[in-house]
Design brief:
The chain is of the alpha/beta class. Strand 16, helix 9 and strand 17 (about 335-340) form a beta-alpha-beta unit.
Length: about 675
């Protein structure tokens, strides 16, 4: 908690004695490191709610990638004006926070400096536009040019007017090429009002120190760069597909360095300038909107006097950032959403957003470097194709987001699958620019397959259709990159892990190297005396491994041994239970056998009644079953006769008391649950 006292910031830590619920549903809004345990009560590593609405400033940290909790769910905490997002090294910052508290608490006051990694979570909101900086004493040492995008359909701009003053505060004189922001809704006058200079094309390209743009430069634009001046170019490069561009840039100027915004490493510290993630979020949202515009029926289920219409079924292929954004938008529009991803970690993310996660019968982890998906084995791909063929018959909308960095997008939706879809269905291919996930995709176009009546959208300008919003997000990423560069003196610090990964050309030499080709995994040959069944099992498990041949064989053998061990355990368990029941039958009276049978049947029925329904119905279901199970009160009442001091009567009295609570409580909870559905 942060309180302002006479213009100074002072901090205090509370144990949340009077925590107020921010939202009605139980979501973990914040995770705390164990290092904060001296100030927090026990079991607070997964706090369900925090009372932060009355604090003046709140600093939260983003989850690590290996904690897949409630991905994509709107968190009201991040929409408050008093909330800041920690985008730096969370562990180091928390350690410094604790050290500062230890020192300051001895003096009876808390005084902590907010680190530079703390960035406003609402930087693109109106509050940023109104923010003003005292620029007196700021020396604008370098010139930063905002270049105009000339690619067909591209409407974004690299820097928006609201961030000009922040860049000037970092020591940059901001120059904007004429009309650079016009397509995104930012006029030249808006830039001038924030202190930027509007220059022509030649001045922007040839006289600036740092040049920022969105799309990679074209070959005819490279000649506009200075041939003898130290310059740093920042843009998307896509080095795997544009090696000719990088060579041309290196030859143009031996003092030129190029930073690829699409080469940002997938690390915690680099999240603040990960433009791929921020743009994918918008693309997933826009994909559903475009699909809805072309879909000829209702998206949500509707009942009218003229008839009943079921909700649209949506299949999301690839549950990355774009896929999760598409799931959230589709669910908010009332669709039934299914999703598939090769990474097991995506299952919890999809289900946390209300989607159904689809799987195949082949166990293979598709998690690649940096959290991206990797190329799968042929056996897994065949199983995928069968899954998509079956789903194509049922769903109305398919959104494909599958991309492998540095390679052509995998083809997942075959022509046969498209022809199985219902007329009027829609396919949105987010990988169209990289070859497309659908065989019938036409990059940059929307067309209707004449044989099936399915609309296939291969738009490559989804982000430009939300140019203002996407420009603000990209501009924030650029600002964080400039902060990371520091006072570079026109020489990049390659000891910085982020700049090292992003720098594809440095001082006229190409640094980027293509990734080595993946080793082709061949099926392990069956042993001479092996049966056909064991051979096929070994073959299926050997696919997808990138190790040597011997490791593939061992991998298949380990799986076979695990299956054999599991089968042996099942056999031993069944044998033990059969022996136990035979022993009970031989040693007990015949009158006991029907009671034992009823008891076993009750256990089986109760198990499937409770666990055979969705988790959302467990509370009302358990309330009803508790109330019904209270019928045993009748058995207890029948025992209330005879000697009042006997053990049976005493036990019967206790049973009546306990089951009465069970009956009353069960029906009360059930009644409250039913009232929730009444208006």
């Amino acid at each position: 908690y942060q309180r302002r006292v006479h213009g100074d910031f002072k901090y205090s830590i509370s144990v949340f004695r009077k925590a107020q619920t921010l939202v009605s549903r139980k979501e973990r809004l914040c995770w705390w490191e164990n290092e904060l345990s001296p100030w927090l009560p026990s079991h607070t590593n997964q706090i369900s709610f925090l009372a932060l609405g009355f604090a003046e400033s709140v600093v939260t940290s983003k989850l690590e990638s290996n904690y897949c909790r409630y991905a994509g769910v709107d968190n009201p905490l991040f929409f408050y004006n008093n909330t800041w997002m920690l985008l730096g090294d969370a562990k180091t910052t928390v350690s410094n926070l604790r050290s500062s508290l230890d020192v300051s608490s001895k003096n009876g006051a808390f005084a902590i400096d907010i680190p530079q990694e703390v960035s406003s979570s609402s930087s693109s909101s109106s509050s940023t536009d109104e923010q003003d900086f005292d620029l007196s004493g700021i020396v604008e040492k370098y010139t930063l040019a905002v270049l105009r995008e000339r690619r067909d359909g591209e409407r974004r701009v690299a820097v928006v007017p609201s961030l000009v003053r922040e860049l000037r505060k970092l020591g940059y004189r901001v120059c904007v090429e004429e009309g650079a922001g016009a397509a995104a809704g930012f006029s030249d006058a808006a830039y001038r009002a924030k202190g930027a200079f509007v220059v022509n094309r030649e001045q922007a390209w040839g006289l600036s120190d740092v040049l920022v743009k969105v799309r990679r430069p074209e070959l005819n634009e490279i000649g506009l760069l200075s041939s003898n001046k130290r310059q740093i170019l920042v843009s998307y490069i896509e080095p795997s597909f544009n090696q000719e561009i990088m060579v041309a840039l290196a030859k143009r100027n031996h003092d030129l360095s190029v930073i690829g915004m699409d080469c940002v490493p997938r690390t915690t510290r680099a999240q603040k300038l990960d433009s791929l993630s921020s743009s994918a979020n918008l693309a997933g949202h826009r994909a559903i909107i475009e699909a809805a515009a072309h879909f000829p029926r209702f998206l949500q289920g509707t009942i009218t006097a003229a008839g009943k219409f079921p909700p649209a079924k949506v299949l999301i292929v690839g549950a990355g950032v774009a896929g999760l954004a598409a799931i959230g938008t589709a669910k908010s529009l009332g669709c039934i959403v299914r999703a598939f991803d090769t990474r097991p970690a995506a299952k919890e993310q999809v289900e946390s957003m209300g989607g159904e996660f689809l799987t195949v019968n082949i166990h293979e982890d598709g998690t690649g470097a940096g959290g991206y998906a990797k190329e799968m084995s042929p056996a897994f791909i065949d199983a995928e194709m069968k899954l998509f063929m079956n789903q194509a018959r049922e769903v109305d909308i398919i959104i494909t987001t599958a991309n492998i960095p540095g390679r052509r997008a995998p083809v997942l939706i075959k022509t046969e699958a498209v022809r199985m879809m219902k007329p009027g269905s829609v396919i949105v291919d987010l990988a169209a620019e990289n070859g497309g996930n659908c065989e019938l995709t036409r990059a940059g176009q929307a067309h209707i397959d004449q044989e099936s009546g399915v609309t296939i959208l291969g738009y490559t300008d989804l982000l430009s259709r939300m140019a203002e919003q996407s420009s603000k997000l990209y501009a924030t990423n650029i600002k964080h990159l400039v902060q990371e560069m520091g006072d570079h003196n026109m020489s990049l610090n390659l000891s910085n892990d982020i700049l090292t990964a992003c720098c594809v050309v440095n001082n006229g030499s190409v640094r980027w190297q293509p990734a080595p080709p993946a080793l082709a995994s061949s099926p392990a040959p069956p042993p001479p005396a092996a049966s056909s069944h064991s051979s096929s099992s070994s073959h299926s498990h050997s696919h997808g491994s990138s190790g040597p041949h011997d490791s593939l064989v061992k991998h298949g053998q380990s799986h076979g041994q695990a299956a054999e061990y599991s089968g042996m355990k099942t056999f031993i368990l069944i044998t033990f239970l059969c022996g136990l029941f035979v022993l009970i039958g031989l040693t007990t009276a015949a009158s006991f056998h029907p009671q034992l049978l009823a008891f076993i049947m009750a256990i089986i029925v109760g198990y499937y009644v409770v666990w055979g329904v969705t988790a959302a119905l467990h509370t009302p279901l358990m309330a009803v079953t508790n109330a019904i199970s209270g019928i045993i009160i009748l058995g207890c009442m029948l025992q209330l006769h005879g000697d009042q001091s006997s053990a049976s009567v005493v036990c019967a009295l206790v049973g009546v008391a306990i089951t009465s609570i069970n009956v009353a409580g069960g029906f009360i909870v059930t009644q409250k649950m039913l009232l929730m559905f009444k208006k």
